[in-house]
Structures are given as structure tokens and as C-alpha cells.
């Protein structure tokens, strides 16, 4: 019930060089559970923004009245990565030794917010549900930890996909839960849900 809403929400997006450079934003109005109306869209060219500083942007909504005020900070991506099994970031013995030294007992209070890293190897899925009329699915896997989200590539026409990807997350809260969700890619439509598992970090 507001024409001047304040959300004050923060989101982290991990931007890699092989992704597109435009941040797309949509503003929606919801009357009830069934009716939604698009109030406008705007776009931010990430490559045009200065790095290592917070940029205050007032973005007019395209073809609609109103504007969106937001703060965007572009900073180097630290600790987060996607790699193949053969180039696993924590697989190098020298790097593992440095990490062990960094998080040893005597250094545990040096930086309270620096808790550690979580590395997840997503190998494959078995006997997935068929979401297409052909009796197959186009599965991809999404990993979420806190407000960090990474995903695998899509394996087309396969109920037993192999991704063989390694995901590395910086841990911000030891009480976070790693959520791993498998979706079926469905073209321009929202992806279909194929399954989910939740793993509390304290159980690892």
C-alpha cells in the first residue's frame, strides 16, 4: 500500500567474465496471490561503473512512471569460484597448507568475520524425474549458501547428468545451510523443480 516503498535489502551477485554485463531489474505490484502487474524495468551496465566504490544510482523505470534508487558496488570477487575437477582450487597441497595456517587456533581471533571456505564438488545426479514429453529432462544444479548463489551448466536430454564442477564459497555464518536444488531448464519459461537437499554447515 505504498507508492514510495523502501526495501533496504542487500544482494550479492557473483559476476564472472563470461557472463553478460547488464544487470536487469524489474519492479512488480502484487494485489493478491494470483494477480501481479509489472510496474517497470531498468538496466545497469556493470562495466560502466567505477570499481571498489559504492555507486548511488537513480534509475528511471522504462515506459512507466517512477524511479528506483539503489546502491551498487563492484568489487573483486574473493573466495568464490567455479572450476572443473582437474583444477580444484583447494586441491593444491601448498594452498591447503596456507589455508590450514590461516585458520589455525592461534589465528582464530585475527579476523572474526573470516570463518573459512566451503568447497563443494557436484559430480552427478541419478534417476531424476522426467520433466519433458520425451521422457528426459534438461537438468542444472543451483547451490545457495547464505546470499551466495552459484549454478552448474545444463546437461540436455539426460536423467543421469554429470556436471563434475567444483564450487568454492566463503563462509560468513557457521550456522548457514547449503541448499542444493536441481531444476529442469524450460526455455523462456521458469525452470521446473526436480529436487532439493539441505545440508547445515554444522553437520559437515
Automatic annotation (TrEMBL):
Top-level taxon of the source organism: Eukaryota
> Which Pfam families does its entry note?
C2
InterPro entries xref list: C2_dom (IPR000008), C2_domain_sf (IPR035892)
The protein's matches in PROSITE patterns, at most eight in alphabetical order, are given as:
C2
- What keywords sit in the KW lines? Calcium, Membrane, Metal-binding, Repeat, Transmembrane, Transmembrane helix
Q: Which organism is it from?
A: Acrocephalus arundinaceus (Great reed-warbler)
Write down the PANTHER family for this protein, in alphabetical order: C2 DOMAIN-CONTAINING PROTEIN, MULTIPLE C2 AND TRANSMEMBRANE DOMAIN-CONTAINING PROTEIN 2
Q: How is this protein named in the record?
A: MCTP2 protein
Q: What is its main location?
A: membrane
The UniProt entry lists membrane topology as: Multi-pass membrane protein
Return the SMART domains for the record.
C2 (SM00239)
Q: Name one GO molecular function term.
A: calcium ion binding
Amino acid at each position: 500500500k505504498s507508492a514510495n516503498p523502501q526495501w533496504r535489502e542487500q544482494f550479492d551477485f557473483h559476476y564472472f567474465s563470461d557472463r553478460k554485463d547488464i544487470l536487469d531489474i524489474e519492479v512488480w505490484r502484487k494485489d493478491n496471490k494470483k494477480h501481479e502487474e509489472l510496474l517497470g524495468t531498468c538496466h545497469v551496465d556493470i562495466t560502466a561503473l567505477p570499481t571498489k566504490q559504492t555507486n548511488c544510482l537513480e534509475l528511471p523505470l522504462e515506459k512507466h512512471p517512477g524511479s528506483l534508487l539503489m546502491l551498487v558496488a563492484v568489487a573483486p570477487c574473493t573466495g568464490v569460484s567455479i572450476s572443473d575437477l582437474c583444477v580444484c582450487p583447494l586441491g593444491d597441497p601448498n594452498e591447503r597448507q596456507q589455508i590450514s595456517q590461516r585458520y589455525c587456533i592461534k589465528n582464530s581471533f585475527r579476523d572474526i568475520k573470516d570463518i573459512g571456505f566451503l568447497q563443494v564438488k557436484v559430480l552427478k545426479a541419478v534417476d531424476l524425474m522426467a520433466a519433458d514429453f520425451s521422457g528426459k529432462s534438461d537438468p542444472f544444479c543451483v547451490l545457495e549458501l547464505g546470499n551466495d548463489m552459484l549454478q552448474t551448466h545444463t546437461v540436455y536430454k539426460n536423467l543421469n547428468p554429470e556436471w563434475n564442477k567444483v564450487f568454492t564459497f566463503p563462509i560468513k555464518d557457521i550456522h548457514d545451510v547449503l541448499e542444493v536444488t536441481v531444476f529442469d531448464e524450460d526455455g523462456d519459461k521458469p525452470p521446473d523443480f526436480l529436487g532439493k537437499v539441505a545440508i547445515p554447515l554444522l553437520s559437515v
